[in-house]
Amino acid sequence: MNPKVKTYLKVLANLLTAVLVVLIIIFLIPKLIVFFMPFIIGWIISLIAKPIVEFFEKKIKIKRKAGSAIVIILVLAIVIAIVYGICYFLVNQVIDFVQDFPRLWSGLVVEFEQVGDSLMGVYTKLPASIRSTLDSFAANSQKYFSNLSVGSGALDLPSVGNVVTKIPDLIMAVVMALLSSYFFVADKDYLKKTSEKYLPASVVYNWEIIKRSIRNAFGGYFKAQFKIEIWIYLVTVIGLFIIRVDYAILVALGICFMDFLPVFGAGTVMIPWAIIKFFNGEYAIGIGLLIIWGVGQLLRQIIQPKIVGESVGMDSIPTLFLLFIGFAVKGVLGMILAIPIGIILKNLYEEGAFNTTFESISILFAGFNNFRRFGDSDREVIRKYESVVAKTYEEQIKNETDNDASDSESSDKSTDS
Predict the structure, then answer these.
(1) Same-domain pairing of 53 and 181
(2) Domain range spanning residue 2?
(3) What is the number of domains present in the chain?
């Protein structure tokens, strides 16, 4: 086989493999994650329980299977109790918030009207088109939130029926999660030994690269940001309680969610909120909001270097692109996952996981550039064309010269006669 043909066949195979991997990641992996979610939850529980089991093995000399069963039961009991308590409290808060939403919305409308009265001098000087746009935006916003407050408590019978039909599936998922968590702890080396035994060494090597990248992304950046947000939430909720903000716990959760998103931050909520309070003459609340925001930012600057340490982050411009792409693809969930996925791709690139694909693209690009360049054999056409044109021009000049000479002789003969 011609070496060049063989090279381009390799390039085609590598690029098709890359496309196939991307399609699998986009379309197949999410479905597999949903399908095997009980086992993934069991694996997460095993990660929590594994250090405690190892402690029992070393210190108390307890057998792994017995120790894992005891620890899993204890961990599950604690987690279920904590989650139940948090969910119970939050659900009550949300129910109270939904019931109180019309009153809150009326108060918010009054505050915006007061701000509008304060800015009426500026509003009257705006062009008519801008004023019409602002009026339309205000009307649409009021209609949207009014519909939200009316429809938020609606619960129809088909929805209840769907929930009831899902109960057996939920029970089975819980059972599988508990059993898998036990076996993941009891036989912690089973998956590793099985993969090394049956999978090719190249697949195991690439999986180790992917695993390190995921660990760096979620165990580094994601975990560090989560720890930081816990402290920011505590400061925010305490401050909101001090200035007597209604539903401070829910409001603080929303603020911390915005603070968790890169580029946005808590200031996108708290600074406009403080400005509105200043326009309405509520200077104490406005100053309090700015103090809460400032203390939160100061606390972040103090604890972030210690908590983040050497975790991998992203520069501002790539982060902004990732957030936009994530939001366009999957909304808010896409924004949350965009940064960890970007970090994983960055780590994979630094590990050399994309070297073969990039080399294939470089070979294809170089071959295309070499193909479109002209060599001596290609320029021979130009030389032949120029030779023909020159020869034709010379013959034309010669014919014109002969014709001129013939005309001159005829003129001389006529003159002599």
Answers:
(1) yes
(2) 1-35
(3) 3
Residue 285: exposed, middle, or buried by beta-carbon count in 10 A (0-12, 13-18, 19+)?
middle
The answer to whether position 331 is within a domain reads yes
Residue with tokens 């409001």: 251
pLDDT at 374 over 60: yes
Q: How far is CA 341 from the centre of its chain?
A: 6
Measured CA to CA, the distance from residue 382 to residue 182 in angstroms comes to 78
Phi-psi region of 24 (alpha: psi -120 to 50; beta: other; left: phi over 0): alpha
* Rounded percentage of the chain residues whose pLDDT exceeds 90: 3
Closest CA to 321 of 345, 297, 305, 353: 345
pLDDT digits (tens, 9 = 90+) for 174-207: 888 878 877 887 777 777 777 777 777 777 777 7
Count of Cβ atoms closer than 10 Å to residue 180 Cβ: 19
- Cα gap 190→256, rounded to integer Å: 40
pLDDT at residue 161 in the model: 59
Domain co-membership, 109 together with 31: no
CA-wise closest residue to 47 among 65, 29, 71: 71
Are the C-beta atoms of 145 and 106 separated by less than 8 Å? no
- Domain identity same for 45 and 174: yes
Same domain as 211, residue 354: yes
Domain match, 96 and 243 both: no
